[in-house]
Amino acid sequence: MAKELTAIEWRSDPWIFQFGGLRPDNVLEYFSQSPFWDSSSNNAIIKMQTQFNDLKQASYNLTSMVGIEFAVTHQEPPSLFIITKFRRSSPTKTVPLSVYYIVDGNAYEAPNLYSIVSTRMLSSIKKVEEAFEIARSHAEFHPSIGYSWQETTEQKNARKAALKELK
Q: Is the pLDDT of residue 54 over 80?
């Protein structure tokens, strides 16, 4: 199973300083230094094959390769870059695996939809549980009359005042 990297923030100030900031032409190189980078990706393979010769990485067409690849899918230079990790199975078919974003030089992995929904549901359920606990503390049961509601004088007055305002 893949490591959980959504809690990691990564930044390399020396790299940013050395290359004069982040730009569309160097942001993938910056990202390749991060723990989010997959060294078996097509991008890494091309980088390794072209690093000691005169061929340029840009001359290779990633769409002709199958496997994992990274691509900048949105950019607002110099502060925001969104990088998507894809699995390519043909020149026209890709499946997004992960999304990463770089904000002012800080790289993060975006949480997946399951994590977002489960966290929101858990916090909602917690609030409902708290409301039921409050309601349960005010309920009273007597065998001859059944359930009744305990209210302090202040609560009764506040409820009556609220009802008067509605009228």
A: no
